[in-house]
């Protein structure tokens, strides 16, 4: 093997090693870092307050994206932005791995409204998963509090929360649709 071939091989391995993440997400480290999150999002990511979303079983990709959006200011929230501003990429990955590994709970939804929401839910399931369990960059809707889901749909409709596809979908829904869909997803 000549020196050019050796140099190319060495360059390949150096480049490949630089492309690898420095450390994989650590669920145990995420558990230790999650203490600050528990006051709003509950132990193990299961909130006891309808104001705050459940994080348990949420897609890790979605959680990473949202924490980075809070940190950069692309997603506006007066509580989450300061919390996320101090997180390193490693912290974000560890927290996301921890919360995504937790067992979810059902928030529950009013049965009559949930039945009405079930008939409207098909438009949501293509992105959010067949059982609204989340799908990579799309969040888990199953088990979220109805009030939280209604607020998010309203935020998309008014444009205070940005996401082109969700803004377009929410623009075509009524308040009654918000309530029905939220009750259905909360019941899953």
TrEMBL record:
Give coiled-coil spans as residue ranges.
Answer: none
Which PANTHER family does the annotation name? CBB3-TYPE CYTOCHROME C OXIDASE SUBUNIT FIXP, CYTOCHROME C4
Alphabetically sorted, this entry's keywords are: Electron transport, Heme, Iron, Metal-binding, Signal, Transport
Q: Which residues form the Cytochrome c domain?
A: 25-103, 104-188
Specify the signal sequence span.
Answer: 1-24
- What Gene3D superfamilies does UniProt report for this protein, alphabetically? Cytochrome c-like domain
Q: Which InterPro entries match?
A: Cyt_c-like_dom, Cyt_c-like_dom_sf, Cytochrome_c_Oxidase_Subunit
Its name, as the record gives it, is Cytochrome c
Organism of provenance: Candidatus Methylobacter oryzae
